[in-house]
Automatic annotation (TrEMBL):
PROSITE patterns documented for this protein: GATASE_TYPE_1
First-tier enzyme category under EC: ligase
Domain CTP synthase N-terminal: 2-272
Protein name: CTP synthase
Function: Catalyzes the ATP-dependent amination of UTP to CTP with either L-glutamine or ammonia as the source of nitrogen.
Organism: Glycine soja
Length: 553
């Protein structure tokens, strides 16, 4: 097993996750099988209880793991299926060590960061790296490891110590370190400054890790003078220094690495010359370049709660992008804070109210994504009503499906107090209820999570046709509330159709309006399995019907 470690320096948010994903894609294009691990130094056991404002979206895996959004990038770029153990956190490591201590596994020894925590980190990496993630039975050839945070952070120090030890455990020729750092350009003089990266590499060396390859983030291509300085002061060959300059879209990053021979530098460090081939990225290159040339816009109104941080809906954005590129359309996402559609905003902030409604009325499609809490719920219901009454393509995901049901009950059935027990625990018309197996005392890991099977009730419905007329599908879930099965008959008698249900037939998974061009709600999250070149069916029609949120007929 070969290991490629990706670290970051100077500042956070440099794009280590995209870089790690691109490295994985490049190695895969050279004929190697790859897997990936993300290390997050925070104390949380997983990302499940973290606010989207704090850390972006929570990505959900097939096994129900609630993980960092970077694992979504890994899956999309490398087309693999990871497990919850592919996301290591300080919380998981300390919990496993404390559990061992309580069992007496350490035989009375004093449990310390070194060697017990560092050994646990190394053991975890080695174990998870050998788990196949590409559908085959044997381990991958290369494991790409991303260390979250920035070199110098207190939280990451045990991991850096462990990774330094790990490089000796696996031996020379099996470990390659790629350090992503910033080379800023001062507008005053227009010169690329290498000092921040020099200091970052010095700090990394001081903690026992020596970078083999330097990936420099900058607004422009690294000039020869800057590259020479970095090579001289960081003790890295000039051919092992690559520039990751600003590009129109992140699909170009693997191409930048390829064009600068980053794969050859890694092969030299990992002794892989002779067992690999030249990278085959023709399809990827075509997709990256064609997406830059799209000019016919398709406007999607995304009505949500966390619209001030786009990373909160990262997988939804990527799924929309995959579908729009497949349709040869230029995606334009109009961000609409759901609360801005509400009547209260018309009084408090009339300009925001008018702007939100202008965007909604100008949209080609309306998407209401998942979320939690009651803020903005009324605005989401208003958006669903507008799409339903004006025959605008609508896709509701998770909470988006639930508010579509509530809106239908209120507007069509005339049940004005129809609600969810999440927002009104004592409502007399509970159209959305808390799932009986859920926990009301513990938040973390207690939702209905991971891949679950949905059975189509008829193959004549839009959603079944979009999925290729299959009898069932497997999609990923993350929810505590569901449509009240006792009220389904009343909803269906009024014209709403629950076309997808779970194996019991009691849990509603897909809802449609048959007489609407495209009005679909899904309790699951289809965005998590969307891939470049393989868009999610609910975001893009794959059958002759070809009615979807991006390409309405």
């Amino acid at each position: 097993m070969k290991y490629v470690l990706v670290t970051g320096g100077v500042v956070s948010g440099l794009g280590k996750g995209v870089t790690a994903s691109s490295i994985g894609l490049l190695l895969k294009a050279c004929g190697l099988r790859v897997t990936a691990i993300k290390i997050d130094p925070y104390l949380n056991t997983d990302a499940g209880t973290m606010s989207p404002f704090e850390h972006g979206e929570v990505f959900v895996l097939d096994d129900g793991g609630e993980v960092d959004l970077d694992l979504g990038n890994y899956e999309r770029f490398m087309d693999i299926k990871l497990t919850r153990d592919n996301n290591i956190t300080t919380g998981k490591i300390y919990q496993s060590v404390i559990d061992k201590e309580r069992r007496g596994d350490y035989l009375g020894k004093t449990v310390q960061v070194v060697p017990h925590i560092t050994d646990a980190i190394q053991d975890w990496i080695e174990r998870v790296a050998h788990i196949p993630v590409d559908g085959k039975t044997s381990p991958a050839d290369v494991c790409v490891i991303e260390l979250g945070g920035t070199i110098g952070d207190i939280e990451s120090m045990p991991f850096i110590q462990a990774l330094g030890q790990f490089s000796y455990r696996v031996g020379a020729g099996n470990f390659c370190l790629v350090h992503v750092s910033l080379v800023p350009v001062l507008n005053v003089v227009g010169e690329q400054k290498t000092k921040p990266t020099q200091h970052s590499v010095r700090a990394l060396r001081g903690q026992g890790l020596t970078p083999h390859i330097l990936a420099c983030r900058s607004t422009m291509v690294l000039d020869e003078n800057a590259k020479g300085k970095l090579s001289q002061f960081c003790l890295i060959p000039a051919e092992n220094i690559v520039t990751l300059y600003d590009v129109p879209n992140i699909w170009h990053i693997p191409l930048l690495l390829r064009d600068q021979k980053a794969h050859e530098a890694m092969f030299k460090v990992l002794n892989l010359h002779g067992v690999t081939k030249e990278p085959n990225l023709e399809e990827w290159t075509c997709r990256a370049e064609s997406s830059d040339l799209l000019h016919e816009p398709v406007r999607i109104a995304l009505v949500g709660k966390y619209t001030c941080l786009s990373d909160s809906y990262l997988s939804v954005l990527k799924a929309l992008l995959h579908a729009s590129v497949d349709c040869q359309k230029k995606l334009v996402v109009d961000w609409i804070p759901a609360s801005n559609l509400e009547s209260a905003t018309a009084k408090e902030n009339p300009d925001a109210f008018k702007a939100a409604w202008k965007l909604l009325k100008g949209a080609d499609g309306v998407l209401v994504p998942g979320g939690f809490g009651d803020r903005g719920v009324q605005g989401k219901i208003i958006a669903a009503k507008y799409a339903r009454e004006n025959r605008i393509p609508f896709l509701g995901i998770c909470l988006g499906m639930q508010i579509a049901v509530i809106e239908f009950a209120r507007s069509v059935l005339g049940v004005q107090d129809a609600n969810s027990t999440e927002f009104e625990p004592h409502t007399k018309s509970p159209y959305i209820i808390f799932m009986p197996e859920g926990s009301k005392t513990h938040m973390g890991g207690t939702m209905r999570l991971g891949s679950r099977r949905t059975y189509f009730q008829t193959k004549e419905c839009k959603s079944a046709k979009l999925y290729g007329c299959k009898s069932f599908i497997d999609e990923r879930h993350r929810h505590r509330y569901e449509v009240n099965p006792d009220l389904v008959a009343r909803l269906e008698n009024a014209g709403l159709s629950f076309t997808g249900k779970d194996e019991t037939g009691q849990r509603m998974e897909i809802v449609e309006l048959p007489n609407h061009p495209y009005f679909i709600g899904a309790q699951f999250h289809p965005e998590f399995k969307s891939r470049p070149g393989k868009p999610s069916p609910l975001f893009l029609g794959t059958s002759p019907l070809h009615v979807c949120i991006i390409c309405p007929s």
